[in-house]
Amino acid sequence: MGNGTKNEDSLIIVRGAGDLATGVIYALWMAGYPVIALEVAQPTAIRHAVAISEAVYDGSAVVEGMEGILANSTEEALQIISSGKVAVMVDPDGSFIRTLQPTVVVDAILAKRNLGTHHDMAPLTIALGPGFVAGSAEADSAEPGSSELGSAEPENAEAAAESMSARSIADVDVVIETMRGHNLGRLILSGSALPNTGVPGSIAGHAADRVMHTTTAGVFRCVRAIGDSVNKGDVIAFVETEKGERVPVEATLTGILRGILRDGTIVPVHMKAADIDPRPDQRQNCFTISDKSRSIGNSVLMAIEAWRSGRLRR
Known about the structure:
The chain is of the alpha/beta class. Helix content is 18%, strand content 23%. A hairpin with a 2-residue loop joins strand 3 (60-63) and strand 4 (66-70). Helix 1 (19-30) packs across helix 6 (291-309). The longest helix has 19 residues, at 291-309.
């Protein structure tokens, strides 16, 4: 294919192009796979400095040397990937998947629930995190967290049963564990990832308090930018309501603004709006793919290579 792309017959479609999805896309792109990313019309990535979903707004986005370019048709998308770049398309329902017939589909939406990804989309289907059941398309008795290549044991039997109660038939071939800890990146071939706790990963002893949410609906207006140093109580943004009020969003702790919604985003109440890293010397990390994203991306790549080698059978 040229431009370092060696797997031209193995098109991979990734549903989602936020910061975690970008880590996956980067791993695949570096390995020489042609990748098309599908996004919503108005992406809301907090860490948008390292998300190729920004191509939806700006026409293109570059993350660590990888360029994503917005495509308005499947023909245009195929031209973009033929040049060794990543194509980004607005297609939240995955309607282009049937037309493009990819070898692999990766659900990296991270919605904590399945928004429509299923076995029939590609010869190999992979999903990130909770909300999916891995196994054969006919499986009806998969155990959460079980796997031939490795497993993430559920915290307790009740949590395991709850994660399986909504669905008895497997959605995808492989689920990747996304919860930080010993099992991060584990390939799950039968069952589900650990349930979502709703608590962000801890950084320097801070977890829930490092993430800010909106307290009202309206239009998000940034006051500060990603990479800025902020003190606890600083106003980092406002939400403009329909009544013309400007409701402030304040920093919950002192540190570096690791992520913040794009200016002009339409927000509901209690939407994740910003993320602070309490370590003042970690500003450079705001502009590179995270360790978690790299781990998950490498796991997706491993799953694909295991499948191609015959070690992972559908």
